[in-house]
Amino acid sequence: MSLPTDRKYTASHEWIKAEGDVYAVGITDTAQEQLGDLVFVGDVNVGAKLAAGATAGVVESVKAASDIYAPVAGEITAFNTELEASPNLINESAFTAWIFKIRPDNPADVDGLLDAAGYQAGAGG
Amino acid sequence: MLAGGPQARPVFRHPAFDLEPSMSAALKRTPLAELHLAAGARMVDFGGWEMPLAYGSQIEEHHAVRRDAGMFDVSHMLNVDVAGAGAPAFLARLLANDVARLAVPGKALYSCMLNPEGGVIDDLIVYYFAPDRWRVVVNAATADKDLAWMRRVIAAGGFDAAVEPRRDLAMIAVQGPAARDKVWAARPQWRAAAEPLAPFSAAALQADLLLARTGYTGEDGFEIVLPAAQAPALWQDLAAAGVAPCGLGARDTLRLEAGMNLYGQDMDELTQPDQAGLAWTVSLKDPARRFIGREALERFAAPCGFAGLMLQERGVMRSHMAVRTALGPGVVTSGTMSPTLGVSIGLARVPAGVAAGDAAEVEIRGKWLPARICRLPFVRHGKAVEHP
Question: Nearest Cα to B119, choosing from B336, B275, B288?
């Protein structure tokens, strides 16, 4: 499928999209497809200040748990609590079901992440 | 999600089975592998076999078995023929359960095969056809080890018995409340012989065609053993009759809800049967039957409990997670999210004396979450079993 071009990506299968002065972060469609039916999304600490690449939360499918990483350094400002009752929203629509929001220490860090073509070339094909 | 440089291909591990989707040429394929691939199944390495994990949504496959009918390719499991006048004596020595319980042809028995320390080499089902004709079905990953062990026991005991692996056979499990009707729809000619079968009994319909009323899901249904060449047609006819193809993912959540053990996860060669909730499969009744492992069980039994666990908060229990109870520590041996109950369930090794209804805690990523000790199974015939 063609990837949304209104956002950036990581090699570890997160997407990050500007929403005002914060950024929404989710996992890519490729990632949800590989993980299978999600049954738990959580362990996101709102208010936590994270380094780039630090664990920001977890998504679990029926059989496997995978960490979600902060794509850039910053502060977690929100968790999508809708996913507590309905983690499968990510299976249904990975690019709209954001998991957490982050306020980057340095918004320019986002520019250095992969664009859609770069992600697709590396892993997201 | 998963670490890796920008150029790295994603590798999604499947921790419970240690699976990777990358297939090496060495993986074995069942006679149905082409059909799984054509159906778009996600294939994984399971015990050296390339097997379907799921065809689409694993949770929908789970529900299909609980509510209607689903089928599993279990051809990776090995059927072994046991023949010879000494077969009863050989099996009495080899198995912890007592094959003397099998008097009616076609009757099946679940048993562990133990090492001299009482550890579980494998769990299996043995079918009785005649005193000199038996069939044993063992797990895929342990098949070579099992065969070597059986031959060693025959040689050491001088039994007049022989074991013959039947890799020429395939096996399809059809499970669910509508499984029987859909098997009749696909193969009307089997109905007369299969319909009267009691649970845990089998009928040999013709040479190399076995219908057994057994399974690994807690639902009614059959396990059908047939020549490999006939398996694809049966699979397709069952699909046409409305049986949903199901993968190993659903097989695992179904067996866990049904409170059934998985070899290699809930027990292994370092585990005695009662450390895995399998004391009921060990027959000590006949004092003269000196099966392998008996002496160790009688002299060096490790008192231990084994129970179900139900998480009281959001989260998912996984194997190897630590458990705390009022009587001491334990460990989760299998855990998952139950699609039927909507909560995380697991099997756990706990101190002796821990009882259903007791409070416990499970450590999930550094936090101790409350859980409750439960009787097994969690789900029987599509319905949640009441728990205190």
Answer: B275
What residue has token string 């039957």? B289
Give strand pairing partners of B244: B70
Report the alpha-carbon distance of residue B15 to residue B317 in Å, rounded.
Answer: 13
| Distance separating alpha carbons of residues B109 and B104, to the nearest angstrom | 11
Do A37 and B57 make contact, defined as CB atoms within 8 angstroms?
A: yes
Task: Classify each residue of B97-131 as buried b or exposed e, where b means 16 or more C-beta atoms within 10 Å of its C-beta.
Answer: bbbeebeeebbbbbbbbbeeebbbbbbbbbbbbee
Give phi and psi for B218, each to the nearest 5. 85, 5
ipTM for the whole predicted complex goes beyond 0.85: no
Longest distance between any two alpha carbons in chain A, whole Å: 37
Angle between helices B58-67 and B248-257 (to 10 degrees): 50
Tokens of B91: 């099996």
B81-127 pLDDT per residue, tens:
999 999 999 999 999 999 999 999 999 999 999 999 999 999 999 99
Which residue of B lies nearest to A118 if distances are taken between CA atoms?
Answer: B6
Residue B58: strand, helix, or coil: helix
Indicate the pairing of strand B244-245 with strand B70-73.
parallel
DSSP string, B318-333: -TT-EEEETTEEEEEE
Do B247 and B55 meet the contact criterion of CB atoms below 8 Å apart?
yes
Looking at the complex, does the CB of residue B342 fall below 8 Å from at least one CB of chain A? no
Q: A with B: how many residue pairs have Cβ under 8 Å apart?
A: 85
Residue B13 in contact with partner chain A when CB distance is under 8 A: yes
| pTM as predicted | 0.89
Take residue A63 and report the two structure tokens written for it: 């059989």
Which helix H or strand E contains B61, and what residues bound it? helix B58-67
Cβ burial B312-333 (10 Å sphere, 16+ → b, else e): bebbbbbbebebbbeeeebebb
* Chain A hits for B54, Cβ within 8 Å: 36
Q: Give how far B298 is from chain A: nearest CA, Å.
A: 37
Label residue B152 exposed, middle or buried (CB < 10 Å: 0-12, 13-18, 19+): exposed
Closest CB to A62: pick one of B3, B13, B253. Answer: B253
A8-106 maps to which CATH number? 2.40.50.100
Q: What is the pLDDT of residues B268-293, one digit of tens each?
A: 999 999 999 999 999 999 999 999 99
